[in-house]
Amino acid sequence: MADRRQAVTGILCGMGAGALWGLVFLAPELARDFSPLQLTVGRYLCFGLVAAGLAAPRWRRLAAPLGGREWRALAWLALAGNTLYYVLLASAVQLGGIAMTSLVIGFLPVAVTLIGSRDRGAVPLRRLLPSLLLGAAGAVCIGWQAIAAPAAEDAGTQLAGLLCALGALASWTSYAVGNSRWLARLDQVSPHDWNLLTGVMTGAQALLLVPLALILAGDSPGGAAWARFGAVSAGVAVLASVLGNALWNRMSRLLPLTLVGQMILFETLFALLYGFLWERRWPGLLEALAFVLVVLSVLSCIAAHRRPAPRPAAQPATA
Q1: Is residue 237 classed as helix, strand or coil in its secondary structure?
Q2: How many CB atoms are located within 10 Å of the residue 216 CB?
Q3: How far lies 303's CA from each of 1, 179, 296, in Å?
Q4: At what angle do helices 84-96 and 98-105 cross, to 10 degrees?
Q5: C-beta separation of 41 from 239 below 8 A
Q6: For residues 314 and 207, what is the distance between their CA atoms, to the nearest angstrom?
């Protein structure tokens, strides 16, 4: 890439976003007494309140560059990347487990990179093939044990979890591609401000879902469960939605879409790491192999984006 410092900064931002986003895989386990819809409403109400509080002093300046088209884009990105995605992801974790969900979400880099390879100025797909193959192999290793081992739940539950994970994959792929392209168009809006605007829109969507969440709620959990729910919602909102999204948007402006796709692999890595800590165990052989393959995938993608040094001009031959 032309600017090495820009590339390093973008990659570090991607790693930070992945570390924070990996926490969202733990949230459904930490607050298992609540439905995926309740978890989504709680998380994004908190996100919306924080984003609105940070944006309020500068609201006129933030909203000035935006027209109807930009607001419609924000509504779609908030739905695809936050509201719908998290309902599907939380459902997948509760129905199929963290390992299976991580497997499917692990294919996000493949999907985003394939779409980004058609952008103008993108690295040719043939140069990205080793990275894609390594990433796919790592994703397969991550979930192989969960798929090959007999499931504790019935087959219907496992299938429902798989379908939810596939829906989350499609939803977030759409967000990652659309968000990166909108950030490239809006030079007058900083990545941090774009994240705050997305948060306000997501909070509005969560507010609309409150009546549905109350109607579909089952037996009310105890006070301790509600306190844990509030802490999980606020923690995930601040760490993943505010700080994680801000790092991701910063990275999306610094790196090409084909490399942006590879950065999602860090979310899978950290999700598994947190899962191992939660389950108090070491990774198995296939899981350790997956870590190696994913890291190699990212490194090979970075190498594919390096431009070769210009060759020195040929010197005239002397007698």
Answers
A1: helix
A2: 11
A3: 9, 24, 10
A4: 140
A5: no
A6: 67
Q: Write out pLDDT tens, residues 114-162.
A: 777 666 656 677 787 888 888 788 777 766 655 565 445 566 787 888 8
Tokens coding 51: 């984003």
* Token pair of 262 as six digits: 């590879």
Q: In whole angstroms, give the CA distance from residue 168 to residue 158.
A: 15
Structure tokens at 46: 């908190």
Whether the full predicted model's pTM is greater than 0.85, yes or no, is no
pLDDT in tens, 166-191: 899 999 889 988 988 888 888 888 88
Range name among 219-223, 233-237, 252-256, 279-283 with the lowest pLDDT average: 219-223
- In angstroms, the CA 75 to CA 236 distance is 21
DSSP 311: P
Residue among 170, 209, 276, 172 at smallest CA distance from 35? 209
3-state secondary structure of 54: helix
Q: In Å, what is the CA distance from 175 to each residue of 58, 78, 130, 269?
A: 26, 8, 25, 20
Residue the block writes with tokens 């908030």: 78
- For 295, other C-beta atoms within 10 Å of its C-beta total 15
CB burial readout 225-241, b (16+ within 10 A) else e: eeebbeebbbbbbeebb
